[in-house]
Amino acid sequence: MRRLLLLIPVLLAALLPAACSGTITAAADSLPRVQADSARLMRVVGALAHDSMQGRATGTPGAALARNLISQELAAAGVTPLGSGFEQPFEFSRSGVRVQAANVLGVIRGSQWPDRYIVATAHYDHLGVRNGEVYNGADDNASGTAALLELAHWFAGNRPQHSIIIAVLDGEEAGLRGARAFVEQKPVPLGDIVADINMDMVGRNASNELFAVGTCQYPQLKQYVREAARAATITLRYGHDGCVAGQEDWTWMSDQGPFLQAGIPFLYFGVEDHPDYHQPTDDVGRLMPRFFVAATQLVIDVTRRLDLTR
Ligand SMILES: [Zn+2]
């Protein structure tokens, strides 16, 4: 009998997560369905990937134009600056030259756990102008940036429980510089960050497939992806995180890398490379709006389900 009594907490502990996650799923399913504003999404990606942004290379006037647009969109969504202003300046050396760069950081304060943070990231910089050709980077990564702004609009209208940091990063193409600067400058204590949700190339895929990277390192995050994928009109695939032998490992291929290095769990959403990857042909006309909207909604849905768990 005594041994049985001793077992009760063990049994409860085993049962509780399932019971809890069941409750979380029910709670999440009772929330309004995530609906992205497809017209706004396409307007923003079109503006970021327009020739006037000159391919948004870090340290150029084109990148500054992009930052202005991003800050205006955040303010219009009702997102407040994380710091004194939206910009988080940083600099780094590239072939002996100091490069001035800046992340754009906003925050939506949480109702239940305001001092615990989910950081949502996407880089806005791209390759600029090369041999007289503008590399507009519509998929890489104007798509992720526009999707991140859509996520900001959603949480500004549906108050989260955690505080959500919107981190639109610079310098990714130069070696994940913006993510490194964020982690180094610690705008909030890193220990208070629950997870990083990163988007890089979410605008098109010929097989209608989006990858979720990071559930190998953080299996506890898989349930949120699985649940969100149930309602999605695109196929969600897991991988590129070292669990599948022979498959390219994307863990350090985008801005989640420095967060992982700082011990912060992550999920990265992105598509397989396509023929226009890092080509001057990566233009808006080659995006797939239905896929893009569905991918955006899926990532917002994952984030809101994660938000329901302390
Ligand atoms: Zn990218």
What is the name of the CATH architecture?
3-Layer(aba) Sandwich
- Helix count, per DSSP? 8
Q: What is the level 1 CATH name?
A: Alpha Beta
Fraction of residues in β-strands: 15-25%
Tell the overall outline: globular
- CATH level 4 superfamily: Zn peptidases
**What small molecules does the structure contain?**
zinc ion
Specify the helix fraction band: 25-40%
* N to C succession of SSEs: HHHEEEEEEHEHEEHEHEH
- Cα gyration radius (Å): 20 Å
**pLDDT < 50 runs, ≥5 residues:** none
N- and C-termini, Cα separation: 35 Å
Q: Care to count the β-strands?
A: 11
**Number of individual domains:** 1
Largest sheet, described in full? 9 strands, mixed
The chain-level structural class is alpha/beta
CATH topology: Aminopeptidase
Give the mean pLDDT: 93
Summarize the structure in words.
The protein is an alpha/beta fold. The protein is built from 8 helices and 11 strands. The strands form 2 sheets. Strands 1, 2, 3, 4, 7, 8, 9, 10 and 11 form a 9-stranded mixed β-sheet that branches. A two-stranded antiparallel ribbon has the order 5-6. Helix 2 (38-48) packs across helix 4 (138-157). The model has no long low-confidence stretch (mean pLDDT 93). Bound molecules: zinc ion.
Outline:
The chain has a single domain, classed as Zn peptidases (Aminopeptidase, 3-Layer(aba) Sandwich), CATH 3.40.630. It has eight helices and eleven strands. Zinc ion binds next to helix 4.
